Amino acid sequence: MKPSEQFHEIEQFLADRSIRLTLQRQHVVQRMVKREHFTAEEMVKDVQQTHPSIARGTVYRTLALLQENGLLEKHDFRQGAPHYELTHGRQHHDHLMCLQCGEIIEFHDDKLEAVQDRIIEEYGYQLVSHSHKLYGLCGVCQKKGKKTKKANAKPPKLRVMQSVE
Amino acid sequence: MKPSEQFHEIEQFLADRSIRLTLQRQHVVQRMVKREHFTAEEMVKDVQQTHPSIARGTVYRTLALLQENGLLEKHDFRQGAPHYELTHGRQHHDHLMCLQCGEIIEFHDDKLEAVQDRIIEEYGYQLVSHSHKLYGLCGVCQKKGKKTKKANAKPPKLRVMQSVE
DNA sequence: TCCCACTTGAGACTGAGTCTAAGGAAGAAG
DNA sequence: CTTCTTCCTTAGACTCAGTCTCAAGTGGGA
Ligand SMILES: [Mn+2]
Ligand SMILES: [Mn+2]
Ligand SMILES: [Zn+2]
Ligand SMILES: [Zn+2]
Predict the structure, then answer these.
(1) In angstroms, what CA-CA distances link B44 with A37, A110, A141, B26, B49?
(2) Number of the ligand closest to the Cα of B93
(3) The pTM of the whole model exceeds 0.90
(4) Section A33-60 average pLDDT
C-alpha cells in the first residue's frame, strides 16, 4: 500500500469515529506512513525536523490515540526503546530479529496462530492479543560470528529487510 | 524444587565457572529463589529490607551477571517494568497474562516450539531465544467485564497462579 | 457570534536504569 | 604473612524515556 493511500485510509477511519485529525496529528501520521518500525523519540525528532513547533507531548498523545484505536502496535524488542508500527490494513504478523545486526523479519504462520488459540482455550481465557518474538542470528552474522570469536558488540540498529505477506 | 536446593545448584553452577559468589550476591540470590517473578526495583527493595547496605547498582549488576550466564530471564510484559525469573533447572515455558487482573499462567507446548524451529529455519536463522506472550482475559475477569461496562482500571498486579509441567 | 469541550506547547517531574570515582575484598605469588 | 592485582562494591550523580500539569489556543455546534 502506498503511503498516501494508507494515510487516507487512516484519515477515513478516524473520521468515521469522529476523532479529530488535527493539523499536528496529520503531520505525525504523514511521517508514520513513510516508515516501517520507529521509536517514539525517533518520531518526535522526525516530526520536529519539519515542524519544530509540534511538542513532544503531542507526538506521544498521538501514539496513544492510534494505539487505542487499533491502528498502531507497540513492540518491545529486547534492546532500546519500544518500536511502533502502523497496523492499519496490514495482516497480522510476528517478528524475527537478528541479535547481532538488528535485522527484523516479519513472519506469519496460520498453524502457529491456531495452536495459540487452542492453548488459551484450555485455560478458559479469551485471547485479546499476543506478542511472539524470535531472536537469533541471521545467515550473515552466523558467519561473521565464527571468524571473530570475541563478539563485536556493535549496538544493533533496527532495520527492516524483508516482509512476508 | 526447594529454595535452598535451588540456591545450592546456582552456587554450584557459578563455582564451576569460577564466578565469585560474593556475600552481596548471595543475599540477592537468596531472595530470588524465594520468588517467582520480580522486577529489578522490587528486588532492590526486597534485598535492602534485610541488608540496607547493599547498593542498587550491585543488585542490577547481579541481575546482569545471572542473565549473561543463562540463569535468569527477563520478561517484558506490557505494563510496568520488566520482570525477571530464575530459569536454572526449570523447563522452558512461555506466559499467558490476564490484562485485567494481571494473573500470569505459565505454559509450554512442544508443537509450538517445533513450528518455531521450522519457521526460523526457513529464513536461514539460528534461533537463540524467543519470547511468546499471550494477553487476554481470565474466566473471572470475563464475567466481571460484562457487569461493569466501564473497565475498572485497577493496576494489574502480577501473581503466579498455575504452573504447567 | 459565543460557548465549551477538546487539543496543544512548554516545561516540570518521575522512575528505571546507567555510570563514575574512590574505597574494599580476596586470590595468587612470593 | 605481605604485597600485588584484579575484581567488586557503595553512594550518589546522571541520563533518558515517558508522564503530568496548566495556561493558552482551537474549532465545531447552538
Ligand atoms: Mn512489523
Ligand atoms: Mn514464568
Ligand atoms: Zn544479522
Ligand atoms: Zn483476570
Answers:
(1) 34, 42, 37, 14, 9
(2) 2
(3) no
(4) 96
